[in-house]
Amino acid sequence: MPEDELRAEIAAGVRFFGWFEDGELLGVMGIQDVQDVTLIRHAYVATRARRGGIGGKLLAHLLTLTNRPVLVGTWRAAAWAVDFYARYGFHLVTDAEKNFLLKKYWTISERQIETSVVLADARWRALRL
Fold first, then answer.
1. Distance (Å, rounded) from C-alpha 68 to C-alpha 20?
2. What's the CATH number where 79 sits?
């Protein structure tokens, strides 16, 4: 992510957390409170460090920082990302819910809305029952 984009995300309220090993940054994940939910934002793990539990540790930590319902948006084609969040109890919302949520909580283009999915945690699902 370019520095100016990173600064803009921080200015918008995204709090970034990193995972370091031997002084090297191997993973990053952000969290952002928007209205009445918390969004997981910008989850990255270095290619050589993937499948080593770093993403799960970062996500577990971020989930302890909020009592709000948590949503995650990602590309529909990113099956590995969808599978990752599903392993941690997130479920895909319907297409109608996805379209509504992406417009309400994110600032993204119509093209991104068309090609994205949203996953929700148990707290968000419990509010809908």
1. 27
2. 3.40.630.30
Tell me the two tokens of residue 19. Answer: 């995972």
Edge to edge, the sheet with strand 91-92 lists: 15-21, 24-34, 37-45, 70-75, 116-120, 91-92
- Domain of 115 in residue numbering reads as 3-128
CA distance 63 to 47: 23
124 CB neighbour count, 10 Å cutoff: 22
Instruction: Name the pTM for this structure.
Output: 0.91
Tally of domains within the chain: 1
Report which of 44, 43, 46 is spatially closest to residue 32, judged by C-alpha positions.
43
Block means of pLDDT (10 residues each) for the chain, 129 residues, are: 89 94 94 96 88 92 96 95 95 96 92 95 85
